[in-house]
Design a protein that fits this description.
Layout lengths: L14 H8 L3 E3 L6 E3 L7 E4 L14 E5 L5 E6 L1
Parallel strand pairs: 1-2, 3-4
Antiparallel strand pairs: 4-5
InterPro entries: Prot_inh_I78 (IPR021719)
Protein name: Proteinase inhibitor I78
Length: about 80
């Protein structure tokens, strides 16, 4: 049985959907085996690189895409 935590669910869908689409890929102009097209991301998103400053406002519908130094996605969160 999955863990259900009130107030954590997003109206944008399940995090695992985006994890499956983005994990390990770089963001670019087109989608293929190693990249994902930026134009296919939800309107409310931000890409966070190591050391980037970010606002601390909580927006449950915003997709946060965490990339490593090489630009590959290593985590996806909402908030």
């Amino acid at each position: 049985m999955p863990l259900v935590v009130p107030g954590i669910n997003s109206t944008m869908g399940d995090k695992s959907e985006w994890v499956n689409k983005l994990m390990g890929k770089k963001l670019g102009d087109s989608s293929n085996e190693t990249s994902f097209a930026k134009k296919d991301l939800p309107e409310s998103h931000r890409v966070l690189k190591p050391g980037d400053m970010k606002t601390m406002d909580h927006n449950p519908d915003r997709l946060n895409i965490h990339v490593n130094e090489e630009g590959a996605v290593h985590d996806v969160t909402y908030g």
